[in-house]
Specification:
seven-stranded parallel β-sheet, 43% helix, 13 helices, globular, alpha/beta, 380 residues
């Protein structure tokens, strides 16, 4: 074999090897951007808007399967959540689309969000939804250093509701939190949630909740009515175990007016339903029940906003196998605080790849999340 032929053979083999290596290397995508010049507002989310629809479709077409499923997963960081390092690892692996800021200081959360978004930008990830349980009764405990406000039971007028909602929203804007898991619209009866809402009488609970929602969303923060289909009239605590509504869903009547007035998010509880022919959940929590999430909330009550589960590490759901997959199949858009975010992502991805109907549900859920991110101004 002459020297020239040897050189040509080596060059050819090296070129083939290099091409093979390039084909196996996954290139991190650039930050997806909308092609439209339109700037959208939070009030556009529920509207029929072809430009907004096109913007969502333009973005989702740029995402791979990993990034699409990531939009559906929201772990927590803080005293009762994961460490900042764990969240950074999830970001680096592109498996989450938002973070719940759970028990920490205002300054800590501000710094974390800044760090997370710097990492997202460097990796080409979509910006995150950042949430908090910033209810009047919990915010000063959940976010140390936030401006003191009256607890729900201490508020005595609609003017005070406005003042409290505006102050909470100002603090959240300062931190970078754009998603408030408030207000509680359960009837004030259950010991776990009763002290957190605006009373037990619909003539006060509903207009005060609507006012809190309006003032929150006017500050460019998503408001969330919770805990659907109602936690106020059960006796136990879903943090510990599955609780059940026996018979009629008496608290459902709290929701139609809130939906009509434009609440953008609803949180579904780990509440089962028994002895109700139409809405029986067959031993599952509402979070994993298509009957409750899709048939009742979406189809019957016509809710078009973002549906988030209650925390998936709670006793009321933690023993349900494949709970994240069941929640998305039921019609939820965001899985909050899965016990293991990586495992939840893997389970969702596995079913997504083999089940066409489930894949369509995942894509629709991701579109909802992306639409909200656009309307918050995160992707304009």
């Amino acid at each position: 074999m002459n020297l020239k032929f040897t050189f040509l053979l080596f060059s050819t083999l090296f070129g083939l090897f290099a091409c093979s290596q390039q084909a196996e290397t996954k290139v991190t995508p650039e930050v997806p951007t909308t092609e439209t010049k339109t700037t959208f507002k939070l009030t556009d989310f529920l509207s029929s808007n072809s430009d907004l629809d096109n913007a969502v479709n333009d973005i989702i077409k740029q995402l791979d399967d990993t990034a699409i499923i990531a939009q559906l997963i929201m772990p927590a960081v803080g005293k009762y959540g994961q460490t900042q390092a764990t969240i950074e690892d999830h970001i680096n692996h592109r498996i989450i689309g938002g973070v719940l800021m759970l028990n920490g200081t205002k300054s800590e959360f501000t710094s974390m969000i800044s760090s997370f978004e710097q990492t997202n930008k460097s990796l080409g990830n979509l910006p995150f939804l950042y949430s908090a349980d910033a209810e009047p009764s919990l915010v000063n405990r959940k976010i140390a250093g936030s401006t003191p406000v009256k607890k729900a039971a201490e508020i005595s007028s609609l003017d005070e509701v406005i003042k409290v909602a505006q102050q909470i929203s100002t603090d959240l804007n300062d931190i970078g939190i754009n998603y408030n898991f408030a207000p509680v619209v359960d009837v004030a009866g259950n010991a776990t949630v009763g002290y957190r809402g605006f009373g037990s009488k619909p003539e006060q609970l509903i207009p005060w909740s609507n006012t809190f929602i309006k003032e929150t969303q006017n500050k460019n923060i998503i408001a969330t009515a919770k805990h659907f289909p109602g936690h106020g009239l059960v006796s136990g605590d879903t943090h510990a175990s599955l609780q059940t509504i026996d018979g009629e869903l008496k608290e459902i009547s709290n929701y139609p007016e809130l939906i009509k007035e434009g609440v953008l998010s609803i949180m579904v509880a780990h509440i089962g339903v028994i002895n109700n022919k139409q809405y029986n959940t067959n031993g599952l929590p509402a979070t994993c029940s298509k009957t409750i999430v899709t048939d009742l909330l979406k189809n019957e009550l016509k809710f078009k906003g973002l549906i988030v589960t209650d925390a998936m590490n709670m006793g009321g759901v933690v023993n349900v196998p494949q709970s994240a997959t069941k929640a998305i199949a039921a019609g939820c858009h965001i899985v909050l605080m899965p016990v293991d975010a990586a495992k939840a992502h893997n389970e969702l991805l596995a079913r997504y790849k083999k089940d066409k109907e489930f894949k369509a549900q995942v894509i629709e859920a991701a579109k909802h999340v992306i639409r909200m991110k656009i309307c918050l101004g995160l992707l304009n």
